[in-house]
Amino acid sequence: MNPADKRTIQFRLSNDALFIGGFIIGVLCFLFIYDRKILDVTYSAWILTSPDPDISQHYLGAIHFMKSGWRFPVGLFDSLSYPDPMSVIWTDSIPGVCLILKLFRSFLPQGFQFFGWYGLISFGLTGGVSAVVIRTLIDSPLVSLLLSPVFVLSFPVLQLLYYHTALASHWLILLALLGFLQESSWSLKKRVSFWSVLGMLCVMIHSYFLPMIGVIMLAGEFLLLLQGKNPLRVSPIPVAGFCISGLFTLWILGAFTTPVNHSGYMIGGFNANLNTFWNSLGSGLLTGIENKYGTQYEGFAYLGLGMLLMLILASLTLAVKAFRKKAPVKQLILLHPTAFSIGCMFFVFLVISVFPEADLNTRTLIPDLVPNFIKSALGVFRSNGRFIWPAMYLLMISSVYVLYRYSARLSFFIILFICVFLQFADIFPYAKEKHSVYFANRYYMNVFDQTALNRLIQGYRHIVLVDDNVTAMMACADYAYRYDMTLNRFYFARDINDRINERLDRYRTGQEDKEGVLFIFYDRAQLSDWLEAGLHFYEYGSDGIVLGSEIPLFGLEELIYE
After folding, report:
1. Cα–Cα dist 302/430, whole Å
2. Residues 433, 386: one domain?
3. Residue 434 scores a pLDDT above 80
4. 422 and 509, same structural domain?
C-alpha cells in the first residue's frame, strides 16, 4: 500500500472517530436540556399539553397513520380526513420514521411516541456531521469537537425542537454542505448515490429541505465547473438523480394523490428579516429587535454572541487581506473557487429567504413588487424564511476557516476559546428555559374522555367536527385514535376545507347518511344552521360543547331549540 492510500485510510478512520465523538456530544447536549423522561415512548402528555399545537399535530398524525390500514401510495390514510385520504406528509410527522414504525406496529404500545428519541438522534447526528464538516476545512480534531456543540445548540434548532421536530433536522443541511466540500474527490457514481439518497431523506423528513439541499447540490456542480480540472466531471446525472429520487418519494408517500387547497398560500407570508443573524428575538443575551412582521420568526437565524464575534473578526481579516493584495475580482475567483461558490450560495439563500421584499427591522428597503400570481405559484414554500438556515451555517463554517487560515495558531485558539465561551453564555438562558419546560411532569386529560360518554356513544364510528377549531381538532383526534373512530377534519399543513364544507352541507340537508356519526359543535352559533338536520342536541361539559346525534343519547339532557 502506497503512502497516499495509507493517509486516506487514516483520514477516514479519524473522521469516523470524530463523528462518534461529535455524536456523543450531541446526545449529551440533548439530555442536558430535554431530560430522559421524554424518551419514554408511552409518555405523550408532554406533547398533548404543549401550548403550541404543531407538535400535537405531528404526534397525532403519526399515531393515526401508523394505526391505519395499508393502501397505495403507502403514505395515505383517512382516519383524520374521513372519507378522503390524505398523505402523512401533510401532518409534518416525519413520514420516513412513521413508515418504518408502521411495519412494526403490532409490537408497539398504544400511543407510541418517537419524537423524544428522534430529537436525541437528530442532536447526535448534528454533532457528528458538524465535527466532520469542520475537520474537512481544518485539520484539527480539537477545533472540530470544540465547535460541534455550537452547531448542535444553534438558536434555530433550539427554537424548533419541540415546536417543529422535523425542521430541527439541521444535520441534513450540514450533510449536504459536507458533500459540497468533498465531492470534487468523489467518483460520479458516489456523487449520484449521495445526492439521490439525500433527495429521498429530505422528503422522508420534511419537504422544505428539498430545495435547500438542491441549491447546495447545484453550488457543488458550479464549483466543479469553476475548478475546471476535468470538464467531464460536471454532469447532470447527480442533479437528475436528486430530482427523480425526491419526486418518486413524494409520489410513493401520496403527496400528489389528494388535491389540497393552495389558494391563499403565497410565498413570502413567513419571510426572513435582514436583521436575522443578530436578532435574538429575545432568546439570547442581546436584546431582541422588532421585525416588520410578526411572522418573520420563521426566518430566525440568530448566530449567537460568540459566532457574531467570530464573523466580525473573520470579515476584518478578509478585508485586510484583500486590501493588501489588490487582486482583480476575476483573479480572486480563479484562486478561490470554493470561496466564490460559497458566496454565491449564501447570496441565493439570502435572496430566497427575504423574498418578495427586503426588510431591515421595521423598515422596508426593497418593496414587494412581485405579482400575486407568481407568489401564489410558489406558495407551496410560503415559509421561505426557513431558507436562511443554510446561509447561517455558511457564515459559521466560513468564519472559522478564515480565522484558522489567516491567524497565528496561538491567536486563533485564544479567539476560539473566547468565542465558544461567549456562545455558551448566550445560549445558556435559552437552554435553561427549555430545560425547565421539559423537566416538568405533565398530565393530559381529554375533555371528551369520560366513562359516561364512552358508554353512551358505543357503536359510533365517525366524529364530524363542525367547527374549524384547532383545539377541538386535537382533542377529537386523540379521542378518535383511542376509541377506533374517524374524524372529518384536522390541522393539516394544507387544507381540504372545500370538501369538508361540501360534505357538511350534505349532512345538514339530509343527503349524507348520519348513522354512527357523532357531531361536535364548539361554536353554538353554528347550531342555528343545523336545526333542520334531524339531530338531537346535547350540552356536554362546562365549555359550551354541544353534541349532535341522529338517535337520542339517553342519559344526557336534550337541548330544545325553537
Report:
1. 12
2. yes
3. yes
4. no
In this structure, the answer to whether residues 462 and 431 fall within a common structural domain is: no
- pLDDT tens across 537-561, in order? 988 876 778 999 998 887 778 877 6
290 and 403 share one domain: yes
Last residue within a domain, chosen from 417, 440, 463: 440
Q: Tell me which residue of 282, 309, 305 sits closest to 424, measured CA to CA.
A: 305
Answer yes or no: do 270 and 358 share one domain: yes
345 in the same domain as 386: yes
Residues 284 and 364 in one domain: yes
Residue 399, burial from CB neighbour count under 10 angstroms (0-12, 13-18, 19+): buried
* Burial annotation 240-253 (CB, 10 A radius, 16+ → b, else e): ebbbebbeebbebb
Give me the chain's average pLDDT, please: 89
| Residue 279 and residue 341 share a domain | yes
Which of residues 416, 440, 464 is at a domain's end? 440
DSSP of 323-371, one letter per residue? HHH---HHHHHHH-HHHHHHHHHHHHHHHHHHTT-EEETTEEEE-----
HEC string for 446-499: CCCCCHHHHHHCCCCCEEEECCCCHHHHHHHHHHHHHCCCEECCCCCCCECHHH
- Per DSSP, the three-state class of 519 is strand
DSSP classification of residue 559: E
Amino acid symbol at 200: M
Residue 543: which domain range?
451-559
Q: Residue 280 corresponds to which amino acid? A: S
Rounded distance between C-alpha atoms, residue 392 and residue 300, angstroms: 10
Q: How far apart are CA 173 and CA 162, in angstroms?
A: 19
Q: Determine how β-strand 517-521 pairs with β-strand 536-540.
A: unpaired
Prediction pTM value: 0.93
